[in-house]
Design brief:
Number of helices: 5
CATH architecture: Orthogonal Bundle
Strand order of the largest sheet: 1-3-2
CATH topology: Arc Repressor Mutant, subunit A
Structural class: alpha+beta
Shape: elongated
Order of helices and strands: HHEHHEEH
Number of strands: 3
Radius of gyration: 16 Å
């Protein structure tokens, strides 16, 4: 059985990717408020996801105010779907072994 993707398995990153999988794009403040993370913590998680190629980050300005938007990439979507499939296979193994003994 393949090892779960440890990058995705971390709870905050799993929540981030799950949110991003359900929307076209979200901004930094939306994720900050939805997840209840600190700015630094959210930035750190997004940096790791971006470096892995799972998330696309777009920075712009609304007037003089910085605006950061995030999207899940096709690679990120496939990695998340693979993660869920692996988790399901683990759950199915546990279901099959229940009652044996």
């Amino acid at each position: 059985m393949a090892e779960l993707d440890r990058l995705i398995h971390e709870p905050a990153r799993l929540r981030i990717l799950t949110i991003l999988a359900g929307v076209e794009a979200v901004d930094f403040n939306f994720l900050l408020n939805t997840l209840g993370l600190t700015k630094g913590n959210l930035s750190s998680h997004m940096d790791r996801l971006e470096k892995a190629g799972y998330v696309k980050v777009e920075k712009s300005f609304n007037g003089r105010i910085p605006h950061t938007e995030f999207q899940i990439t096709p690679e990120g979507r496939e990695a998340l779907e693979s993660y869920w499939r692996q988790l399901d296979s683990i759950r199915n193994l546990n279901t099959k072994t229940e009652g044996k003994g």
